[in-house]
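Late entry, written up from scratch paper. The run itself happened at the end of the previous shift, but nothing got recorded in the book at the time, so transcribing now.
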Amino acid sequence: MDTALESVAGVNPDHLGLLNASLRAPSAHNAQPWKIKPLPDGKTYELHYDHNDYLPDDPDDRDAYLTMGAFVETIVLEAPNFNLAVTVTPKLSRTGDDLFVAEVSFSPLAPGGQTDPLSAWVSKRSTNRNHYTKDALTPELETSLKDLGNALVEPKILKDVLTEASMKSWANPRFVHDLKVWYRSDKHAGDGYTSPQMHLSPVVTAALKFAFWRGNLKSKFMERIYSTRDVAMFTAAPKAAVLSATDMSPAALFDAGRRLFRSWVTIIAAGYVYHPFSIAIDEKSTAPQVAKLSNTPVPVALYRIGKSNKPPRAMSNRKPLKDVLLS
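Output as recorded:
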């Protein structure tokens, strides 16, 4: 164990490796909005959503609960890699601006206990924003993703709705402000996103900063120009997935976040890659169209799937454990 980690106050030394590994969980804009509160028993931790890192364009808390579900599933899948077992107790309560999402309790992994096969792949999970090849998904992967609540569709059927959503988003000052808040020029910043991590060329980066300066794009022509790159990348993929929830309740969204993360690790384990494109669900006017085209009751996440000849250019940065602890 890294001795530098042993000095983290309030954390059981036996849990340092797992908690640090779990910080690789995904979050919108790499905001990392989770907070961890160690309890006096030395084995239990409260997990909270930090509204200081609240995403302004997430009014119904969909991203909040999806993110925290993914964070919990990261802990669950990483635990056997550190000889630990996890018990998850959902709380899903709100006090003012605080979302108390769950408690997790750690215990030693029983000798000979079953280990989730995905645990071997969780640390290899990463979003790949490169162009994808035309390699079809295997029937086994398609079955696994459907079992996790994903509807698989041809990306081209979503081209028009994705274009509409993207154009409306670029015209929305809240959307542009959200991007601006989390953009980082410093490649060593502990959170947010950078141009290298997002695979943005100098020209695209300049266009992004121009949008930040403008606040939004009021020209249909400019909106379409800014939308074209991402839409073309999405529709060129061999398959798209729409993850559905039963409803928009905190419990359903939390469960969907856990299934979403398992879906992404399943894709990596099968030798494929993925890239989230939930803008058509974020936009309220286009979400019903996604539901209809994918035949899903409540779509909560959209992403493309395929293979890429290039690895991700750079892993996103993470805050240190001490910065996400609550006393």
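The first helix runs from residue 16 to 22.
(Scratch paper discarded after transcription.)
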